[in-house]
Amino acid sequence: MYEFVTGPLAWLSFAIFFIGLIVRIVLYIKGLDWKMDRVTYRENVSYGIKGALRSILFWLFPYGSHSWRNNPWFTLWVFLMHFGLLFTPIFLLGHNVLLKERWGISLWTLPEAVADGLTVIVIVSVLFLILRRIALPEVRLITTLYDYLLLAIAVAPFITGFLAYHRAPDYYTWLIAHILCGEIFLIAIPLTKLSHFILFFLSRAQLGMDYGIKRGGMKGKGLAW
Amino acid sequence: MPEGKLCNKKPVTTKEELQALLADKSGKQYYEEMNHIDIDRKALWGTIQKSFKSRLKTWLEICSHCGLCAESCFYYLANNRDPQQVPSYKIQKTLGQIIKRKGDVDNAFMQECMDTSYAKCTCCTRCGVYCPFGIDTGIMFSYLRGLLFSQGFVPWEMKIGSGMHRIYRAQMDVTVEDWVDTCEWMAEEYEDDWPGLTIPVDKENADIMYTVNAREPKHYPEDIAEAAILFHVAGENWTVPSEGWEETSLAMFGGDWEACKLQVESVYAAMDRLKPKRMVVTECGHAYRATVIEGPYWAGIKTGKTPVESLHYVEWVAEALRTGKLKIDPSKKIKEPVTYQDSCNYIRNAGLGDIAREIMSYIAEDFREMSPCREHNFCCGGGGGLNGIGRYREQRNIGLKVKRNQILATGAKLVIAPCHNCWDAIRDLEEIYKIGMRWSFLKPLLINMIEVPEHLKPKEE
């Protein structure tokens, strides 16, 4: 079982993840239309790049935009969650040991206690986001089961990984569950709303170009995001 | 396929059709007929497949329902934080459903879409500035309005407006003769007070071609006289075109993209004909947005720019004050607290926030900013055509509360609103809520404040 989930299934998941993301990028860019979107992407490239970078950077860092600053707690937990989601799996010692075994390469790794802490932070952040969805009427109304499912997909590898790492009873089962959950996560990224993994950048760049090229970027200082 | 006599999928293109619509007081028959028109689902889905691409598709798809857009929407705030006013909810329940059902929707649903896209969204695009993914719901509602127009679901006044543009190349029935007569009349009316004042029509190679909002010749001709006086005092070499003088676009509010194109092309044709160095647009936000910001795209101009450089009136005023063409008499500066209404269309959507502040620095001693302001300002409450739609008067009036509170918080009793829509909304706001404030365009204020050179003053007899 272990050989299968860390072998062919892992290959398949990574293939879907990478190819899926590339397809997302290609389809997004191909579907841009200067006339329909009313943005001259090709004519005013320098303004477009400036607008796109501003639009991404102000939002990429916590409290960079008005909206982030207006919602300090949400911003805190959202950034902590994303930080944990992104960096824990990449720099985890266990993952890099496996990488070394299989392909002979490995990256810099996080101290194990830090990785453990990040895992807890991800789980707590997801809990916060679930509670927020239930507590705030303006969020509750627009929340669907799909939104909870995505949170579950994102947090599952962390819960199972945490249990496996701390040698919960049935270690082997948790380990296999962890690997499977991680693979589901990888596959879900290009195929679901989690595609904001890449579409966040593309969509932000697009609106940034809109503002940078057409909606005042050539006249003012650029939108104060 | 049942179609109404007045309410149907066909745009108004003849004076007879227009008269029939206008004769139907408040659109009574029009809205009754709307209850019975069929949806051409194939055409609707066909249009969507051709026009619903990357950006819109992604916006609808990746919305993570975080609700950060809620507080950005003045309707949400004005309606006691009603969750049904959250932009994400509003768009998912309308456009989102049309897409999900592949255009298989019924009459009642289309009317709900129409009510939502006009009475719950002024397309101010503020939510787009507050969404982490850059989802601009205002743009999506504008797109939805276009789909609705193509199926005959458009408020009565907007159907009339689009017809006016198609027939008169103006949002009101002002003909070329009416317009030129009004210019001549105004020049005559004011030339005693302003010797040498003229309103040159169709002068070629002028430095400025001035264009207006049809309401000015129709209802406020003195606005044209005031513009003429200020150009006259500033010593500008200017002109107005006999054709292609109208900048506004009710067609843009109504989603009649074909009429949008026809309208802006009439202005661009005037540019080609008269070859001015620049164009200046009157104190109107959506007019500037339609003709200068969006218009080049409707007309298919690859640079995305108007054939000659185009300025909003505030840009011209700032430049005239900066270069000394207009000088403010320091003793006549506005002494009382005064605030400025940032129009969504030329501030958020065209980047002229600094220009407005520059003007205020010349003319006001106690300028008070609204909070929030500049590109983060709230819609006046009457944008997106809402001021003109009787069916949604009640919802509009509720929405005005946000602007009322913003103005009250400044402590100012005078609001400068260089935008016809904002000006109207603020006038109505005072009428309804009676907060004891005044409102004004820039032109009449400037005329009372400028230093007039001796040779331009009337000779004492």
Instruction: Report the count of strand segments of chain B.
Output: 8
Largest sheet, strands/sense/barrel of chain B: 4 strands, parallel
CATH class of chain A: Mainly Alpha
Contiguous low-pLDDT stretches of chain B (5 residues minimum) are none
Q: Sketch the topology of chain B as an H/E string, one letter per element.
A: HHHHHHHHHHHEHHEHHEHEHEHHEHEHEH
Q: How far apart, in Å, are the first and last alpha carbons of chain B?
A: 73 Å
| Element string of chain A (H = helix, E = strand) | HHHHHHHHHHHH
Quaternary class? heterodimer
How much helix, percentage-wise, in residues of chain B? 40-55%
Give the domain tally of chain A. Answer: 1
If helices are DSSP runs of H or I spanning 4 or more residues, what is the number of helices of chain B? 22
Query: What portion of residues of chain A belong to β-strands?
Result: under 5%
User: Can you tell me the CATH architecture of chain A?
Assistant: Up-down Bundle
Number of domain modules of chain B: 3
User: What order do the strands of the largest sheet of chain B run in, or round the barrel if closed?
Assistant: 2-1-3-4
Largest sheet of chain A: none
Task: Report low-confidence residues of chain A grouped into runs of 5 or more.
Answer: none
Distance between the termini of chain A: 50 Å
List the main descriptive attributes of the protein structure presented here.
heterodimer, A: 225 residues, mainly alpha, Fumarate Reductase Cytochrome B subunit, 12 helices, 77% helix, globular, B: 461 residues, alpha/beta, Fumarate Reductase Iron-sulfur Protein, Chain B, domain 2, Rossmann fold, 4-stranded parallel beta sheet, 22 helices
Describe the protein's topology.
The complex is a heterodimer of chains A (225) and B (461).
Chain A: H1 2-6, H2 8-30, H3 34-37, H4 45-60, H5 66-70, H6 72-91, H7 93-103, H8 112-135, H9 137-140, H10 145-165, H11 171-191, H12 196-214
Helix pairs in contact in A: 2-11, 4-12, 6-8, 8-10, 10-11
Chain B: H1 15-23, H2 28-34, H3 41-51, H4 54-62, H5 74-78, H6 87-100, H7 107-119, H8 126-130, H9 137-150, H10 156-168, H11 176-190, E1 208-211, H12 215-218, H13 221-234, E2 238-239, H14 250-254, H15 257-274, E3 278-281, H16 285-298, E4 309-312, H17 313-323, E5 334-340, H18 344-348, H19 353-363, E6 364-368, H20 393-410, E7 414-416, H21 420-433, E8 438-440, H22 442-449
Parallel strand pairs in B: 1-2, 1-3, 3-4, 5-6, 5-7, 7-8
Helix pairs in contact in B: 1-10, 6-7, 6-9, 7-9, 10-15, 11-13, 13-22, 15-16, 17-19, 20-21
